[in-house]
Write a structure and sequence with these properties.
The complex is a heterodimer. Chain A is α+β, with helices and mostly antiparallel strands. Chain A contains 4 helices and 13 strands. In chain A, a hairpin with a 3-residue loop joins strand 3 and strand 4. Chain B is built from 4 helices and 20 strands. The chains are: A alpha+beta, B alpha+beta. At the A-B interface, strand 2, strand 3 and strand 4 of A face strand 15, strand 19 and helix 4 of B.
Chain lengths: 226, 329
């Protein structure tokens, strides 16, 4: 467990209307700091800051350069970073996601299990075994990148993505787990499916899962596994 | 709220757009909005519309509309041979249309241009979704029923501000527009992963006339014409936030320029980012068009953007005869 003050942050201009704040390292603590940075900047509501998008080990800040110079924005962010505390290790809000694993709902479950050298039932047990942090929302509206998965569940992305996976597909890849909110191309391994609605653009809160939330997968219905 | 025009032929892609929903990026929702934000802003300025008023984006041409009410109109962006009741429609100018008149777009005959914008007083009346009237096509929400416009669609206008007869004849001087042209030079700022590429690779990116491939749309332009731009070593970058203007390099080495409907995050190395002032130039490109990149620094980017903001604040002028009056040089 390392020290928040030891994290090195770098600033990059992403064009002239956005700035990227990135950590050299990639780990859970860095993501907890990134989430805290996004929360703090949102609360500060600096005039000219339009949106802050936290990601695995970075935060994107879109700003209006007519209201705020890049230099001033960097100075504001540096002041925040100096006294930044990570979000608590236990997410304040945990959403239970019921999943039908395997069968037609999880066409990749058997292959993933074979690749990992464990049984499909063990994959399910591990996937449900802890609360994961939603480290970022991206790729598509409402798509959560949650993790980190235990090393026993680490598989690379599919060599050939599917042109479309069904809405609600629950997937894993590269130490993360995600849920497809809509029919979308999918490069991750689909191990199950949920009927929960992940994204509704008309709702007061459009995303069921937001960056910083916890997600707990729960077996809804066990398909017989060999 | 009253019906103002009907779509007879939408052309390649016609959709309702406004300044976009930047704040929705936290939800994984792209900003969308007009591809050419400057042309959109001018169309609204000409009509004294609020900055968030919605316009129609016409792509490539071959579109036609029927006016259902008398209304001032402003068309900005590309010259796609717009005619009103058969007469050539002056662009970047407020013109009075009458009920029953046909507004037609042909194809581009000029050297450049891909997108034109139709604005009416008050802006087009569609519901706000996530704070914007822009259409997010891939997501199926926003704009007109979340989709591109089709023959038979009827659009209404929101109430205008003030007396619309005072708008007629207002025009926007050519001297206060971006450098629209064939094969535009897009100024880029070095990307956060620029160091992953060799100087020779950077030279190839900026020294080559690139082409917008057929695999291009509102999400982004896949660029061709340059030998593979691979980083010095295969690289795995954790997903990070991106925005329109980002030039990313996927594993096949062919760069992609992200545009209005681009995903909010990506995992490919970013070699450069087109400056905000030059996004309107990129927005006017169609598949088959050429472009070139040149690297600039933040100071140049900021100055160029400030100049455009000054134009938007100072103009338009109220009488076509005084076209150059008050235009900053």
């Amino acid at each position: 467990m390392h020290d928040p003050d030891a994290v090195t942050w770098r600033f990059h201009d992403l064009g002239d209307t956005a700035m990227l704040v990135t950590s050299e390292s990639v780990d859970l603590l860095v993501n907890q700091l990134v989430l805290a940075l996004a929360d703090t900047l949102a609360a500060l509501a600096l005039p000219g800051v339009q949106v802050v998008v936290p990601a695995i080990n970075s935060a994107l800040i879109r700003y209006d350069p007519a209201m705020l110079t890049a230099a001033d924005l960097r100075a504001h962010v540096q002041r925040v970073l100096v006294r930044l505390k990570p979000v608590p290790a236990t997410p304040a809000r945990v959403v239970a996601v019921p999943v039908r694993y395997g069968g037609a709902d999880g066409p990749d479950l058997a292959d993933v299990a074979a690749t990992l050298g464990i049984s499909p039932a063990e994959v399910i047990r591990l996937h449900c075994g802890q609360v994961y942090r939603v480290m970022m929302i991206g790729f598509a509206p409402g798509y959560p990148y949650a993790g980190p998965l235990p090393p026993a569940l680490h598989v690379p992305r599919r060599s050939t993505p599917r042109t479309q996976v069904p809405r609600g597909s629950v997937a894993i890849a590269a130490g993360l787990t995600g849920i497809y909110p809509a029919p979308l191309p999918g490069g991750w391994h689909v191990i199950g499916r949920t009927t929960l609605e992940l994204f509704d653009p008309y709702a007061d809160q459009p995303c069921l899962l937001q960056a910083g939330d916890g997600v707990q997968f729960v077996v809804l219905d066990e398909q017989p596994q060999r | 709220m009253s019906a103002v025009l009907r779509v007879d032929q939408p052309g390649a892609l016609c959709s309702v757009q406004d300044r976009g929903r930047i704040g929705a990026a936290r939800y994984g929702v792209p900003a969308s909005g007009a591809m050419d934000q400057f042309a959109r802003a001018v169309a609204n300025r000409l009509l004294d519309n609020p900055a968030d008023a919605a316009v129609l984006e016409v792509t490539a041409g071959n579109a036609s509309f029927t006016l259902l009410a008398a209304t001032p109109l402003a068309i900005t962006g590309a010259d796609l041979q717009a005619t009103l009741q058969g007469w050539r429609m002056p662009l970047w100018t407020v013109v009075q249309g009458l009920a029953g008149m046909r507004l037609r777009f042909g194809q581009r005959t000029a050297a450049w241009g891909g997108r034109a914008y139709i604005a009416v007083p008050g802006g087009f009346d569609v519901p706000l979704v996530l704070g914007s009237r822009s259409t997010y096509l891939a997501g199926g929400f926003g704009g007109f029923a979340g989709r591109m416009l089709r023959a038979g669609d009827v659009l209404a206008a929101r109430p205008p501000r003030g007396d619309t007869t005072l708008l007629l004849g207002r025009t926007w001087p050519e001297s206060a527009r971006p450098g629209y042209q064939a094969c535009p030079t897009l100024r880029i700022i070095r990307g956060p992963h620029a160091d992953l590429f060799t100087p020779a690779t950077h030279a190839r990116l900026t020294g080559t006339r690139l082409l917008v491939s057929r695999s291009s749309n509102r999400m982004g332009f896949r660029l061709e014409g340059v030998p593979s731009l691979l980083p010095v070593a295969p690289v795995s970058i954790p997903s990070l936030g991106v925005l329109p203007g980002v030039v990313q390099v996927p594993p096949d080495g062919q760069p992609i320029l992200l545009m209005a409907d681009a995903q909010t995050t990506g995992g490919y190395p970013i070699i450069g980012v087109v400056i905000d002032a030059d996004l309107p130039l990129a927005a006017q490109l169609l598949p088959g068009d050429a472009l070139q990149f040149v690297v600039v620094d933040l100071a140049i980017a900021t100055a160029a953007r400030s100049q455009m903001q000054r134009w938007l604040a100072a103009l338009p002028v109220s009488d076509a005869q005084d076209g150059l009056c008050g235009a900053p040089i």
